[in-house]
Amino acid sequence: MSRLQTQSAAPSNAASVSASGKGHPGGHPQGKKKQKPKDMFGTLFKVWRYLSAYKSSLALILLMVILSSGLGLLGPYLLGYTIDRIDYPGHYSLIFLLGLLGLVYLLGSITQWLQNIWMIRIAQSAVYRMRNDLFNSMHRLPVAYFSKRQHGELMSRLTNDIDNVSQTLNSSFIQLSSSILTFVGMLGLMLWLSPLLTLITLTIVPAMFFGMKWITNRTGKYFKEQQRHLGDLNGFIEETFSGQKMVKAFSQERRVTEMFEEKGARLREAGYWAQTYSGFIPKLMNMLNNASFAIIAGAGGVMAVHEMITVGVIVTFAEYARQFTRPLNDLANQFNTFLSAVAGAERVFEIIEEEPEAKDEANAKAASMVRGEIEFRNVSFAYENDIQTVSDVSFHLKPGQTAALVGPTGAGKSTIINLLSRFYDPAEGEILLDGLNTRDLTRASLRQQMAFVQQDTFLFQLSIRENIRYGRLDATDEEVERAAELANAHSFIRKLPDGYDTVLDQDGSGISQGQKQLITIARAILADPAILILDEATSSIDTVTELRIQDALYRLMEGRTNIVIAHRLNTVRQADVIIVLVEGQIIESGSHEELMEHKGFYYELVQSQFERVSS
Ligand SMILES: Nc1ncnc2c1ncn2[C@@H]1O[C@H](COP(=O)(O)OP(=O)(O)OP(=O)(O)O)[C@@H](O)[C@H]1O
C-alpha cells in the first residue's frame, strides 16, 4: 500500500513565442504530451457547457469585441479622413474631427478593458466549477484507477491542464474573435478604399507567412526540446532532494552534481536556440512592417500623384499595415495555445467522465453497530490479468478475535484487506460481515466499521489535532486528547512548542516515524471501529518508541476484531488464528502452538528468523 506522493507541480515560466513553448513542470514535460486534441469539437462542446451558464455575459463580451474591433478600424480611417480635410477648414471643423478621433480611441480602450474583465470573471468561474468537478470525480474513482496511474500525471491534470484551460479562456476567446474581426474588417475597408493599393500591400503577406512559418517551426522544435530537458532536470532535482539521504549515504554527491551539470548544459543549449530563434520574430515583423510601409508610401505616392487616391488613404493604409501583422501573428500564436488548451481540457474531461466506483446495490443497507464477525467463503480474485491473486480463501473470525496474516511478499495479504474493505470485489465466493454479504452493504458504511493503521503512515498537512480528529470529525478536543493519551502520544505532543496545534509538514517530516505511528493509532482509537486492520511496521524504531507503539496497539486492538498483516513474531504468537498465505492460497492456519506442532511452512518461518523472512 503506497502513500500518496505529491509531485511538485509549480509551473515553470519558460518564455515562449508560440504556445508550443508553454512552461510545464518537472517530471511531466509538456513536450512528451500529445498536444493535439483527439476530438476538438466534442471537447469544445463540453467546455461550452461550463460557459453556457454565462450566456448573457458572453453576448455582452462579444458585443464589446465587435465594438472595440470596429473602433480599432475606425481610428485609422478617421485619421486619413481628417488629413484629407485639412485643406478645407471652412467645411469641416478639424477640432471636431480630432475630438472624434480622441473619443474613438478612448471608447476603444474602454470596450477592451470591459471585455477583458468580464471574460476573466467568466473564465475563472467556469474553471472553478471544472476544477471542482475534476476533484470530485477523482474521489469517486475506484482504487484500481489510481493503482494504474502515476500520481504526478493525475496531479498534472488538476494543475497544469486546468491552468492551461484557464489561461486560454481568459484571453483566447477575445483574442481569436477580435483578430478575426479586425483582419476581415481591415481587409474589407482597404478593398473599399483602394483595391489596387490593397493588392500591392498584400504582396508582403506571403513573405510574412513563410518567414513566420520558418521561424515557428524551429522555435517549436527547440521549445519542445527545452521543455523536455527542463522536465528532465526538474525530475532529477526532485528525485535528488527526496533521496538526499541516499545520495549522502552512498557518497554520490559528486556524481549527482556532474549529472546535474550535464542535464543543465543540455537545457542551456536548447534554451539558447529556442530564445535565439524566437528573438527573430519581432525583428522579422518589424522588418516586414517597415517594408509594407515603404511599399504603401511608394506605390500610394505614385497613385496619389495620378489622383487615384488621396493622401488620407495612404495614411489610413499605412496605419492598417502597421496593425496588419498583429492579428495574423495573434491568430498563429493563439491557435497553438488554443490547441494545447483543448488537449488539456480533453485530459480533464477524461477523468470527469471516467467510470466511477461501481454504485452500491440498489437495496444495499448501511452497516451500523456491527459486532465484527468476519467470514471469507471460498473467495477468489484476480486484479486484471488472469493470474489469480487470491484463490479459494476461506476463514472465519468471531467478534473480538485477532487474525494474523502471514506469508512471503506478494502472497496476497494486502489483497485480502482490499477485498474486505471492498476496494475490489471478489470474482468468486463471498465475504460476510456479521453474517451479511458485504456486497449488500453500502461501501461507505462498511468502511466506517474499520480503521486502518498502516506501516506507511499517512498524515495530512494539518495540525496534529485535526489529523487525529480525522478518525471522527465530530470528536471534541477532550476526546482527541483522550485518544492521544491512550495511544501514548499525549506526552510527546504536549512537549511540542505548539502542542496539539502543531501543523505537520507535507510528509509529516517534523516528527519521528514512531511518533507518526502513535498519531495514526490515536486516530484509530478515536474512530473506535469494530474492526481494526493493522499493517505492522517493518522499519526498525528505537526500543522505547517501539514499546510505546506496542502498548498503544494492544490497547487499540482490545475488544475489536483485528486483522494484522504481521511481521513480528510477538504479534503473531498472540493472535487467535494465524493464516499462512502462499501464492494467494491459505496453506495452513491455526494458533501458534498448533502450527508449530504441525511443522509446516509457519514452523520453517519461525525457525528461520521470522521477522526477516516474512517482511
Ligand atoms: N493493484 C494491483 N494491480 C495488479 N496487481 C496487483 C495489485 N496489487 C497487488 N498486485 C499483485 O498481487 C499480488 C499480491 O499482492 P499483495 O500486495 O496482496 O501481496 P502482499 O502479501 O501484501 O505482499 P507484501 O507483503 O509485499 O505487501 C502480487 O503479485 C502483486 O504484484
From TrEMBL:
* Alphabetical list of Pfam families matching this protein: ABC_membrane, ABC_tran
GO cellular component term, pick one: plasma membrane
Chain positions covered by the region annotation Disordered: 1-37
Domain named ABC transporter is located at 374-608
| GO MF | ABC-type oligopeptide transporter activity; ATP binding; ATP hydrolysis activity
Q: Provide the ABC transmembrane type-1 domain boundaries.
A: 59-340
Q: Where in the cell is it found?
A: Cell membrane
Note the topology in the membrane: Multi-pass membrane protein
Q: Which parts pass through the membrane?
A: 58-79, 91-114, 199-216, 293-318
Supply the alphabetized keyword list. Answer: ATP-binding, Cell membrane, Membrane, Nucleotide-binding, Transmembrane, Transmembrane helix, Transport
Start-end of Low complexity biased regions: 8-22
The record ties this protein, via SUPFAM superfamilies, to: ABC transporter transmembrane region, P-loop containing nucleoside triphosphate hydrolases
Q: Which PANTHER family match?
A: ATP-BINDING CASSETTE SUB-FAMILY B MEMBER 10, MITOCHONDRIAL, ATP-DEPENDENT PERMEASE MDL1, MITOCHONDRIAL
State the name under which the record lists this protein.
ATP-binding cassette, subfamily B
Name the lineage.
Bacteria, Bacillati, Bacillota, Bacilli, Bacillales
